[in-house]
Amino acid sequence: MSEEREKVIPGEILETGEDWLPGEGTRRDGKNIVASRFGLKEIQNRLVKIIPLSGVYIPRRGNLVIGVVTDINFSGWNMDINAPYTSFLPLAECPRFFNKEDLAEYFDIGDMVVCKVKAVKRKGVDLSLKSIGLGKIEDGMIVYINSNKVPRVIGKEGSMIKIIKDATKCDIVVGQNGVVWIKGKTAENEMLAKETILFITGKSYLSGLTEKVQEFLSKKFGEKK
Amino acid sequence: MISNLTKKRVHDYLLEGKREGRGLLDYREIEIELGVSKNAEGSARVKVGKTEVVAGVKLDVTEPYTDHEDEGTLITTLELLPLSSPRFEAGPPKIEAIEIARIVDREVRESKFIDFKKLCIKKGEKVWGIFLDIFSINDDGNLLDAAGIAAVAALRNAKMPKYDEKEDKVEYGELTNKGMPLNKETPIILTFHKIGNKIFIDPGQEEEKASEGRISFGFLDGNINACQKGNDAPLKLEELSEILETAEKKAEEMTEKIDKAIEKALKARENRK
Questions:
Q1: β-strand B51-62 against B30-34: which pairing, if any?
Q2: How many CB pairs below 8 A link A and B?
Q3: Which of A86, A94, A98, B94 is most buried, by CB atoms within 10 Å?
Q4: Which of A80, A110, A141 sits opposite B9 (nearest CB)?
Q5: Does B241 touch chain A (CB under 8 A)?
């Protein structure tokens, strides 16, 4: 982890030889393993892969995402989850009873909903609400970040997000699609949590980020006093 | 599309008068850089906070319009580049781009900022044609006002190219020292936005998306030359008179600011040479 990883751009030759295997974000071109995305090069045994630094969110099954309702159908809601596919939240995937006559009463156009990706099909993404902690967001603040930086914001086993939560006393939900929901007691706390998250996304390539974030937070608290 | 949640938050903050460290009628910092394009006769890069636009002025000899035989021509275009915001797509200009270009065009033309009569070479046959091209580089709200500032700065920066009358050719390589025939006063476009019953200027990206109504005024030396109403929400008569009152003061203040920024940019450019 402490090792500086090399930044690579598409077309760059990563390794040469038949021993290597192309992983995520790379392809084989003759004898070479060539990068097809912009990101950090990582080698795991024989596998060469790229941790992307840019690009759109590609939904995967089981992802927790936060989306906006864009349209209401007779059988559910069309959602925008910042992905290049259309996504749909069917009525059948809601855990409690909904009156089919008036779906707008539950989620109206423009409402933000925390949901889970149930399946990624060819025609689009299916979402679900059948899990704990999913549902409509009533208040709080929304921050948009690059979806590739989400792992950095969450940290190893949630270490990073725990630091921010403890320091700012805010509830934070990070959607895998790069939408972050912050709910705190005061607007100042929410703003501080937002600043910290943007600080992390701006410096995501650094190693030892956890210490830097702690430093940043203690400095911010020092300013307040 | 903006979520109801963010819209409500923007509204709440406006009610409290909180706006990321500035008041309702405070502008973000304006930065101007001149002569950014090598091939244009005049160009400017304008930053209003994180919003960034580039404008270029190109001059050519063309035929005048038949109803204005002794006047030069002006064509303003604006392109909202896809790199500046995920909202914009490549392709022919959409309604938003056309609207901004037309407001800027109207303000520059109707304020008599450019003396078109002096751009005439031979009446009815040859006049100078001005092409004013504006591009958005980054959109953090308020592209309209920024485009107006960029257009003015680029025109101020422009120098007339040499024109060879015998061969009927413009020699672009050699710019004369003569600037364009411009008014001393600087025109400015000010856009007022309305959310709920709060009126504010210079919106950020979220504020612009949440904006319910807007009205733009083009000023030159205290006179209104251009006006455009946008978005759905109507304005009350009292609101409008309040806007006009503040607009006049604000325009004066802003013109001074812009003039200073242009002067500073001109000096910076001379020092570089």
A1: unpaired
A2: 28
A3: A94
A4: A141
A5: no
Closest approach of chain A CAs to the CA of B10, in angstroms? Answer: 10
**Strand order across the beta sheet in which A21-22 lies:** A7-8, A39-44, A47-52, A21-22
Residue of B5, B9, B10, B50 to mutate, testing the A interface (most A Cβ within 10 Å of its Cβ): B5
| A110 CB within 8 Å of a chain B CB | yes
Angle (CA) A131 A150 B136, round 5° = 120
- B82 φ, ψ (degrees, to nearest 5): -60, -25
pLDDT at A3: 59
pLDDT given for residue A2 in this prediction: 43
Domains in chain A, CATH or no CATH each: 7-52 (2.40.50.100), 64-136 (2.40.50.140), 141-224 (3.30.1370.10)
Nearest chain A Cα distance for residue B211, angstroms: 15
B11 shares contact with chain A (CB less than 8 Å): no
**Complex ipTM value:** 0.73
pLDDT in tens, A142-156: 999 989 889 888 988
pLDDT tens per residue across span A35-90 = 999 988 888 888 998 988 888 898 999 999 999 999 998 889 999 998 989 999 99
- On whether the B20-272 domain is CATH 3.40.50.920, my answer is no
Bridge partners of residue A29, in order along the sequence: A32
Q: Which residue has the tokens 């209003």?
A: B48
Nearest CA in chain A to B12: A187
Tell me the pLDDT tens digit for each residue of B135-173.
999 999 999 999 999 999 999 999 999 888 888 888 887
| Contact call for residues A53 and A40 (beta carbons, < 8 A) | yes
In contact, A67 and A177? CB cutoff 8 Å: yes
Residue B233 CA to residue B122 CA, distance in Å, equals: 49
Query: Which residues of A are less than 8 Å from B9 in CB distance?
Result: 141
The whole-angstrom distance between A80's CA and the closest CA on chain B is 9
B249 close contact with A: CB closer than 8 A:
no
